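Box 3.1 A note on notation
Throughout this textbook, protein chains are presented in two layers. The first layer is the amino acid sequence; the second is a token string describing backbone geometry. Keep the layers aligned when reading.
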Amino acid sequence: EAVKLLKDLSNDPFGWTVLFEGDRLGNESFLTACKDFADLTCWVLETNKENLDIRHKARNDDQNDIWLKGRTTKVERLSKLFNMKKQPHENPKDTKRLVKELLEVLG
């Protein structure tokens, strides 16, 4: 359904900006469709292991180490395939910088 939505939006004469994040849409087929229908800008947010552990606990995540390693491998592969910009995200200052940069990308 997400690829169909992209196709429909690409035919709209007024144009659209689509923002998304996460594992469900962060896959090769969806990102390829994005490139086929529009300009694609991708970021990979990076942080240290301590921050990751804190964030996972705060969300009550129960993913095991094997699943987490698989996500890391997936992101690394997609990052290379789609030339994603790696962005540090360690603290609130980084968050503010990222929001500012995102607003600039959106114009």
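Helices lie at 2-10, 28-37, 49-58, 65-81, 92-106. The chain is about 55% helix and 5% strand.
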